[in-house]
Structure formats: structure tokens, C-alpha cells
Write the C-alpha cells for this entry.
Amino acid sequence: MQNDFVLPEAQISTPGAMDLIPTIAAFADACRKRGFPVVYTREMHRPGLEDFGIEGCFEPPHCLEGTAGPDIVAGLEPQPGDFVISAKRRYDAFLGTELDVVLRGLKVENIIFAGVCTDICVVNTVMTARNHDYRCYVLRDAVDATSPARQDAALLCLSHVFARVGDTAEAAELFGLGSKHVAASRRVGLLS
């Protein structure tokens, strides 16, 4: 949930992203209270676009280092103890980053996904997570895509074999947020 994807005035803003902020903030707080790690990923590109690649064929320059574009949007600022994976250069948050090393170091087995864009970064990251044997849960009411049709298509594809898709209330119950009892084998992290 970075400025260039969320703020209405951004060049590649996601239509419903601003509406997700309270839902994601509340869910992240519940995860923190339960002791689950909260991990942020930040797409960033060099000002000269040397790392932009073929993304430039599909999107205008965005999330440029030295601008406010790659900053986490107001209302979802990382808190002490949260983890921030910066310099994500591609849609997939695992590709070329320390994300897998951090999650394994935290003994995470289950990843809960929130943020944007469902049809781009979320779908790419979920598929890689699943291929790395993480159990994935996508929060239907805490993700948004570039259009309603793409949102539906992405969630449909992810729900087939890549992730369980449900809302924040279902996830809170499944993972014991607000409860003292969670199965010891269920190490959980929120990825936004």
C-alpha cells in the first residue's frame, strides 16, 4: 500500500485502495497483538529507470527512489517490530529480495495477504509463496485490483490451488486473532 498505488492523484492509483486502509490497519493491529509479524513490501525503481525493464511497456514510471511514491500510505505506517522489504524491483515480492529469508527466519508457515494490486503484485507473490510451500490466505476485503473484473478473475484463479480466499472476519477466526488459542504449528505473518 504505497502512495503511487493508493493516492487518488497518483498516476497508477488503484480505484478502491483508499477504502482498504482502515480494514488493513485494524487487521495489522490484531496481528501485532497476537504476536504475528507484519511485513511490508515496497516496490522501488531507480530514478534513471535502469531497473524498470519491460514494465515500462505497460505502466508509466512509478515508485521512484527519492520521491514520495514508494512510501507506505498514511494510516498504514510500519510500527516498531514490523518488517519492511524495500527495493522490490518486480511484481513478485520474492524475486530479488530478502522476503523468503526473513519469513523463514521468523518461522512463518502461513502468509495472510493484504494490499494492492490483486491482479498484479498480489497474484505474482501468492503464486511464488505457494511454490515455496507457504500456505496462503488472501483477504478478499483487504485487497483491490485495477478493475472489478480483474479483482474477480484474480481471486478466482488464486482460490483454485494457490490460496484460501476469505474476508478479515473469517481469517481472524481461523488464525485466532483476539483469542489466546492458536495451533502451535500455525506460524502466521501478514504481508502487505
Observations:
- The domain at 3-191 is CATH 3.40.50.850 (Rossmann fold).
- DSSP finds six helices and six strands in the chain.
- The chain has one domain: 3-191.
- The chain has a mean pLDDT of 92.
